[in-house]
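Appendix C: a fully annotated inverse folding record. The material below is reproduced so that readers can follow the format used throughout the book. The structure is listed first as tokens, followed by the designed sequence.
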């Protein structure tokens, strides 16, 4: 294999690895919140929970910043979307206790 072919293979491999590691936040620029519902949700691709617009990206939902505290955003989302498996606000994941409190409002 010549040097050009080796370079081409390396570039293609890098592109595949970068694509495979992209996250929902990367797919939704400006997202401040990300959640993963416990069960597959049959909800629409967009859900409005209080003052937050959630957009479905794969199995997750993402939303831009809102005027409410993250705990309130999580609880309102659980009320509309259902029980939440994981919730992040500005890159910080909720711990088990915060997630349990959030899920008290789940439908």
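Designed amino acids, in order:
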């Amino acid at each position: 294999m010549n040097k050009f072919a080796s370079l081409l293979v390396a570039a293609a491999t890098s592109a595949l690895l970068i694509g495979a590691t992209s996250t929902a936040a990367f797919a939704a620029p400006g997202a401040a919140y990300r959640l993963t519902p416990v069960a597959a949700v049959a909800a629409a691709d967009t859900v409005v929970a209080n003052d937050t617009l959630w957009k479905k990206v794969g199995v997750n939902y993402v939303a831009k910043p809102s005027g409410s505290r993250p705990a309130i955003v999580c609880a309102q989302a659980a009320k509309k979307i259902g029980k939440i498996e994981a919730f992040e606000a500005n890159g910080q994941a909720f711990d088990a206790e915060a997630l349990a409190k959030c899920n008290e409002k789940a439908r």
